[in-house]
Amino acid sequence: MPALYYFVGVPLEKIQHEWAQNEPDNKNNAESCLALHSDGRMSDERCDEPRPYICYRPHSDVEANVCGTPDPEYHFESRTNKCYKFHTSSRTFKRANFACQAEGGYLVIINSEVEAQVIRDIWIKYPAVVMIGPFWKDVAYVGMYNWDESEDWTTIHGQWLQEAGYAKFSPGEPNNSTTGEYCGAVYRNGMFDDLYCEQDYAFICEKEPSYPPVCDSDSPRPFEPAICHNGVGQAQIQPDNQMNEIMKTQTSNVVI
Question: Where is the C-type lectin domain (predicted)?
Answer without folding.
Answer: 19-56, 79-206
